[in-house]
Amino acid sequence: MAEPARAVIDARELVKSFQGNVAVGGMSLRLGEGEMVGLIGPNGAGKTTLFNLIAGSLKPTSGEIWIGGREVSQESPERRIGRGVGRTFQIPKPFLEMTVLENVLVGAQARDGERLFANFLRFGHVRQQERLAIEKARALLEFVTLSGLEGQPAKVLSGGQRKLLELARILMADPQAILLDEPAAGVNPALLETIMERVLDLNTQGKSILLIEHNMDMVSRLCTRVVAMALGKPLAEGTPADVASNPDVIEAYLGAAA
Residue limits of the ABC transporter domain (predicted)? Predict the structure, then answer.
């Protein structure tokens, strides 16, 4: 049997309580190098809270989060981006008055031009760095099919285009692992195909991807492994077909619908 891929993200027995209410209760999840894993569950299952814990916008009540072999449970989101973990949000919030290109450039990390003295002491280096950042941002806009809109304000973009823009902005930081929070939600079928193609391209390039999604067709087409959770706890894990046919998963979804 083949050895499992080295873990990029390893969340161990995570618990998150809010004033006594348990949103995540003993959840473990492992994302290996080059894996694409789906995270499913009914509304209120704790999926986004788990994402927030992994990305650093929430600190766990207990449990551990390891990124690239380092325990990072108390580190900030900025430090975790530096360690190679980027995330998108269910509802993208671009800077509406800034251009599409400027929104992507916001995602660039550790630019010398952000430091006052570097603009005076290393002006040529800063100009070169900015030029390279613009070239990279334009290449990413082409990758997400938005290059024709680079000079337009982000407020003109549709919901699906905003999700593509957010993906391009995250890619400016060169993450090894990408957490995608419901990329299919509210997206028209044509743009959804584009999003799926780009996510698959990124995975083929070696990016590890953890995907929250209710669209089981998308999960089945993209993911080799699926983790289901309900009420903040693990429910099932396996192939998309196995998890979709699991009686506990079916009951959790039907119960939520009822």
Answer: 9-256
